[in-house]
Design brief:
The protein is elongated, with a radius of gyration of 44 Å. Helix content is 44%, strand content 26%. The protein is α+β, with helices and mostly antiparallel strands. It has a 6-stranded antiparallel β-sheet, sandwiched between helices. It has a 5-stranded antiparallel β-sheet with strand order 2-1-5-4-3, sandwiched between helices. The protein has a 5-stranded mixed β-sheet with strand order 13-15-16-18-17. Strand 15 and strand 16 form a beta hairpin. Helix 12 packs across helix 15. Bound molecules: adenosine-5'-diphosphate. The site of adenosine-5'-diphosphate has 22 residues, from helix 14 and helix 15.
Length: 480
């Protein structure tokens, strides 16, 4: 047999090599000539790569390489290397009998047999599993790195010398580009509102096993913006005696801002509701006095004042209720067919009862049938009219203009009152917005917000034109 013959002539200590060649399970051995033609394989090679002697002996060893590696001339390069240097290592795929690629690590050695013939001995380790494992670890690592770099939270790691050894994109966005592994955490801490406190916490965390969570801290950004963070710190698992700390800073500026706004609104609403309520209590007390004195005229006056205060309270509560409904998209719209002019007439009558001293001039008309929520449109018109009166600054004249074509009907309410400052105009239909100079006039800033919600629910538009000090025109239009 070729194998026995070659080995016999090759080794003086034949028995030793024969037992290694035949019995090893880990070393897949291949013997070939200097042209790369395979002369022998051992049983370990057969077990791992599936080839029997007949499949492989006498063929060129390039058959074991992938097409890609053959194109790169890897087999030839390997041969040249081993012939030139007497030894070479390689790390690549080998293809098994079933065409499946296995990652291997091999060593080729140039040897000379007794007949002074050069041969190449190739010992191959199948490291496919290890390689696959390494590959998935790399992928996992990449994946983790990608998550950390893309999340909005600020994530960074400091070592026990308080130097930053890792930081994600959000960190750089807040504190500026820093050279990892080179920045002293103390320099960063200086930018924090309660930096010293955080530093103490951190030093404690370094000394003990415990980290900390939910420490609130303020940062003034480079753009001068104040940001509030919820900071948590964990000690990473100890590795090579290193005690690294992982920091996560979660931006809670908006949460705190929302909380503050909510508290402001509750305070403001409670304050506004207290006014008519206090008036009501006072009117009732005075009413009991006047009743005791049998003064009917005075008593009627206090009854009227009480009624007005109840109506004010009622309006505020209804607006608050509607605003919550509108805010959650649940404002009910009940459409019906009605005459638009008749609806306008009813709205004007309502205002006239409440404000008999004011004159409301009407221009234009819309004697047409529209399909809309009549009650809600009256609410919009009365709100525009009562604002025109409320912010009239003494001018008793309010004008209502109605226009229509086949598609839309437009209503405008024009007053010659306070007007609205240019910078306030974009916010005038926002919830709770009130212009600074009207804060002494009673109101809670929900009327126009509701008008907009109602008109938008009809697929219409609201807008305003105003000249500060001269007056305003509030518009709405809806499809007929
Ligand atoms: P409220 O009148 O209860 O404050 P609105 O939502 O109706 O609430 O109005 C919001 C704000 O818009 C008012 O506080 C006032 O500053 C301003 N505003 C509304 N209508 C007029 C108007 N006709 N003239 C001047 N300012 C107005």
């Amino acid at each position: 047999m070729l194998m026995r013959k070659t080995l016999n002539s090759l080794f003086t200590s034949y028995d030793l090599f024969d037992s290694l060649f035949s019995n090893t399970k880990q070393n897949n051995v291949l013997l070939m000539d200097t042209e790369g033609v395979i002369l022998e394989i051992n049983s370990a090679f057969s077990d791992v790569f599936g080839y029997a002697d007949d499949d492989i002996v006498g063929r060129h060893f390039s058959m074991l390489f992938t097409e890609e590696d053959q194109l790169k001339q890897l087999p030839q390069k390997e041969l040249n290397n081993v012939l030139e240097k007497g030894q070479c290592n390689d790390n690549n795929y080998l293809v098994n009998k079933h065409g499946i690629k296995r990652w291997v690590s091999g060593e080729s050695i140039l040897i000379t047999n007794k007949e002074s013939k050069h041969l190449i001995l190739k010992v191959i380790q199948d490291i496919h599993l290890q390689k696959t494992y390494e590959h998935s670890l790399e992928q996992l690592h990449d994946f983790n790195e990608r998550i950390i770099s893309t999340i909005d939270d600020i994530v960074f790691v400091v070592n026990d010398e308080m130097r930053i050894i890792k930081a994600n994109k959000s960190f750089h966005q807040l504190f500026g580009e820093i050279d990892n592994e080179n920045v002293d955490f103390n320099d960063i801490v200086k930018q924090l509102d309660n930096g010293d406190e955080l530093k103490n916490q951190m030093q404690q965390a370094l000394r003990s096993d415990a980290g900390f969570i939910n420490k609130e801290t303020q940062v003034i950004t480079r753009a001068g913006e104040k940001k509030i963070f919820d900071v948590s710190c964990r000690r990473l698992e100890e590795k090579d005696n290193k005690r690294d700390l992982l920091f996560i800073m979660h931006d809670i500026t908006m949460v705190r801002e929302d909380e503050r706004r909510r508290e402001d609104i509750i305070g403001f609403v409670a304050h506004e509701l207290r006014n008519p309520l206090a008036n009501l209590v006072l009117c009732n007390e005075l009413l009991s006095e006047t009743l005791k004195d049998n003064d009917i005229k005075e008593s009627l006056e206090f009854v009227t004042r009480s009624k007005n205060n109840i109506m004010r309270l009622n309006k505020m509560i209804a607006e608050l209720y509607d605003a919550t409904k509108a805010g959650s998209g649940n404002l009910q719209i009940e459409k019906q067919l009605f005459n638009f002019d008749a609806m306008i007439f009813e709205a004007i009558e309502t205002i006239k009862v409440l404000q008999p001293k004011y004159e409301i001039k009407v221009r234009g008309s819309a004697n047409i049938e529209v399909y809309a929520d009549r009650y809600r449109l009256i609410q919009v018109v009365t709100n525009y009219l009562s604002n025109g009166i409320k912010y009239s600054n003494g001018s008793a004249e309010v004008e209502l203009i109605v226009e229509h074509n086949d598609k839309i009907v437009t209503v405008a309410v024009k007053d010659k009152g306070l007007g609205i400052a240019k910078e306030n105009l974009p916010y005038i239909f926002n919830r709770f917005f009130r212009a600074e100079k009207t804060k002494n006039v009673e109101g809670i800033g929900l009327g126009l917000f509701l008008c907009r919600q109602i008109i938008q629910a009809h697929n219409g538009n609201v807008w305003v034109e105003s000249d500060e000090g001269k007056g305003s025109i509030f518009y709405f239009s809806i499809p007929v």
